[in-house]
TrEMBL record:
Name the record gives this protein: 6-phospho-beta-glucosidase
Pfam families cross-referenced by the UniProt entry: Glyco_hydro_1
Family of the protein in this entry: Belongs to the glycosyl hydrolase 1 family.
Organism: Phytobacter palmae
Domain of life according to the entry: Bacteria
Catalytic site: E372 (nucleophile)
């Protein structure tokens, strides 16, 4: 018998800004991601260190066409259905519904697009799992209001969220509020549309913005349950525990602090209040959170489940610094000598997934949903014109086994969506050559290619995994 429960949701995940393209079609407005270029200037823009509010003619912006999912979603969803998906995670582009972000009424063309897409999923018996904000903020909200540093964003976001819950009621019942909410600490512009002024306390800006997002998330959760009590709302964490680099007590303490830094947001969203340790963190960083009356009450609207991404575990020591941490990931980590790494330097650690899941369930006592997991790799065609991505199959096999072990440990897990089930633009680097999918998309890092879709070897393997409810991993 499979360890995976009956009705376990199997599928894959994408994000609107990495797949849809059509960046100004259908009434859509410009978003933060649309201003993040490919190439050397990408990182300073993502970190909020370089203001980039207008497009430049000498740069390439991968989100503008991406893989053209906007026009090809029927073809792509049919391929997902062929694999047997029972869940498909995607996001709504906020600026398709509210092009500026602060309008009072939504863009009907944007609503029609997503209704058609979700209906296409339902046609095949696929449940949409929908993220409201996946690293894209309408650009007008950045230039006019300063994005999430401004309390007015709560009103704009909750209006948008209510529109989604009402417009897609009956089509979508699984929702996530903010994708990888903890990434705003590490990549403030791509994470939350934050840009810094010279000399200001960046921690103050980030944690005040976080407070606004946490209030918005709690209100959205409340609205979702009011619109339809059947709605289930989750938070979303960029997951992966920090291991102490050694058993030196200082290393153990540093790892604990790093874990708390990442889990802070989920502590609030899943438990309904600020954790005790936050007071000292804020004091030491010179942060004073400005709250409004009733905020603490609002935060008690906790999520129904905890979703997370897991690609790699991390390593921390008291001697961590810019010179000895890996530049491979936006969340800094020491290289773990006991595990292998991917082509992009991400540690491959299936047991780390089981460790992370046990920690999270011990901490929150809410069902878990693994909504991103996958291996970015360069895929090459063989002489027969096929992609034999055994390295991807191996990675996914071992992580599915680890997830099964966590379920056997007693953890309730709702489902599993692999990241980038179809090749898309990598959020970290803007590359197409960093591929995750079961489906190859003919497009290169410069935006050239036919966009033709082609099944990889892993496509057939994952189809077999789903058909056996995770029992046949060979």
């Amino acid at each position: 018998m499979s360890v995976f429960p009956k009705g376990f949701l199997w599928g894959g995940a994408i994000a609107a800004n990495q797949a849809e393209g059509a960046y100004l079609e259908g009434g859509k407005g410009l978003t933060t991601v649309d201003t993040i270029p490919h190439g050397a200037n990408r990182l300073p823009v993502k970190l909020g260190l370089e203001k980039r509010f207008t497009l430049r003619e000498d740069e390439y912006y991968p989100s503008h066409q991406a893989i053209d999912f906007y026009h090809r979603y029927k073809e792509d969803i049919a391929l997902m259905a062929e694999m047997g998906f029972t869940v498909f995670r995607t996001s709504i582009a906020w600026s398709r519904l509210y092009p500026q972000g602060d309008e009072l009424t939504p863009n009907a063309e944007g609503i029609a697009f997503y209704r058609d897409m979700f209906a296409e999923c339902k046609k095949y018996g696929i449940e949409p799992l929908v993220t409201l904000c996946h690293f894209d903020v309408p650009m007008h909200l950045v230039t006019e209001y300063g994005s999430w540093r401004n309390r007015k964003m709560v009103e704009f976001f909750t209006r948008y969220a209510r529109t989604c819950f009402e417009a897609f009621d009956g089509l979508v019942k699984y929702w996530l509020t903010f994708n990888e909410i903890n990434i705003m600490l590490h990549s403030p512009y791509s994470g939350a549309g934050l840009v810094f002024e010279e000399g200001e306390n960046q921690d103050q800006v980030k944690y005040q913005a976080a407070h606004h997002e946490l209030i918005a998330s709690a209100l959205a959760t409340k609205i979702a349950h009011e619109v339809n009590p059947e709605n289930q709302v989750g938070c979303m964490l960029a997951g992966g525990n920090f291991y102490p680099y050694s058993c030196k007590p200082e290393d153990v303490w540093t790892a604990l602090e790093k874990d708390r830094e990442n889990l802070f947001f989920i502590d609030v969203q899943a438990r309904g209040s600020y954790p005790a340790y936050a007071a000292r963190v804020f004091r030491e960083k010179g942060v004073t959170i400005k709250k409004e009356a009733g905020d603490d009450e609002i935060l008690r609207n906790t999520v129904d489940f905890v979703s997370f991404s897991y690609y790699a575990s991390r390593c921390a020591s008291a001697e961590m610094n810019a010179q000895n941490t890996s530049a491979a990931n936006i969340v800094k980590s020491l290289r773990n000598p006991h595990i292998q790494v991917s082509e992009w330097g991400w540690g491959i650690d299936p047991l780390g997934l089981r460790i992370t899941m046990n920690m999270m369930y011990d901490r929150y006592q809410k069902p878990l949903f693994l909504v991103e997991n996958g291996l970015g790799a360069k895929d090459e065609f063989n002489a027969q014109g096929e992609i034999e991505d055994d390295y991807r199959i191996s990675y996914l096999r071992e992580h599915i086994r680890a997830m099964g072990d966590a379920i056997a440990d007693g953890i309730p897990v709702m489902g599993y969506t692999t990241w980038g089930c179809i090749d898309l633009v990598a959020a970290s680097t803007g590359e197409m050559s960093k591929r995750y999918g079961f489906i190859y998309v003919d497009r290169d890092d410069a935006g050239n290619g036919t966009l033709e879709r082609k099944r990889k070897k892993s496509f057939w393997w994952y189809k077999k995994v789903i058909a056996s409810n995770g029992e046949d991993l060979a």
